[in-house]
Amino acid sequence: MADDARTWLERIRGLPLPERVKIMNVCGGHERSITMAGLRAALPRSIELIPGPGCPVCICPEEDVYEAIQVALHEDVILVAFGDMLRVPVNVPKGAVRSLEQAKASGADIRPIASPLEAGRIATENPNRRVVFFAAGFETTTAPVASLLVQGAPENLLVLLSGRLTWPAVAMLLDSGTPGFDALIAPGHVATVMGPEEWSFVVEKHGLPAAVAGFTPTSLLAAIYSTLRQLIDGRRFLDNCYPEVVRAQGNPTARRHLGEAMDVVDATWRGIGTIPASGYRLRPAYQDRDARRAFPSYADASRKRAGQMPPGCDCAKVVLGRIYPNECRIYGKACTPRNPIGPCMVSDEGACRIWWSSGVRHSDAA
Ligand code: SF4
Prior knowledge:
Mean pLDDT: 94
Largest sheet: 5 strands, parallel
Number of strands: 11
Distance between the termini: 34 Å
Oligomer: single chain
Order of helices and strands: HEHHEHHEHEHEHEHEHHEHEHEEHHH
Bound molecules: iron/sulfur cluster
């Protein structure tokens, strides 16, 4: 651990801490840093760090993954998607194709990508093929997709959009009256794009301390210290502990592109249900890029329900911070990275996968 991180740790240890305090993060990158740096063990026992809704792959609705699989199987297209999405399983009868990876193995032309620019490049390199970009992600992914469209993507590039906003899930938890946390660490990368102001509601409407953090243990510990100080001093404000990158109002160009290309709509979150104003939809001017309009509908209405997780999988509770990953009944038993049952064990940003990668093998299921 870097010296400046140790300094923050000592400051936290020196605080007159309450008996119990729960701090939620909403970013897979944060959870990875916290877990891999061993911050939970290093912090005083009264501080609980709770992983929240920070994994876009985990909350991508099953019906969207199913649609992507069907488009890849039944249409003459190249389907591109972020690598993590390829292994996400859907509920299908035994023997049917249950992931994009299986669809690829059975002959569909599916290519993993690491950035939206790669989708544009593949479309440019294959002018006689239609390329479908299964664009699942939060603001940090959706904004580059919007930029790609606004700045003139290749004609043969279509988008199967499954974009989500992060803050509405936290708002839903807070509005529920039982959020399960006392303070919030807000995602630095989202704030870089959208501006830290998006998280002001945590402080102003709900009276909870909040701080934007970057991905280093130092930045995370600074944010943890800030929220604890706010709790102890009885003050509330949205702190920016990632000032080297996060600026007021975020990235104006990215936000303008988002506004030009996308509308904000109510959207389904896997295992959670519909969250108001939490998703993106292509605006009318870009509907000729909408894969859902270009092909017959592969949507399966029966999948549009809240309980879309595989039987026995507690991913929805993990995503909402209601339980820790290893409190799932099948963590490390039926569900491992080699044989993932739920999306939280697939994605590098999924809390189950992160905990497993850090060496947590024991199950604390009740
Ligand atoms: S251990 Fe597997 S089944 Fe359980 S919540 Fe995590 S991903 Fe879902």
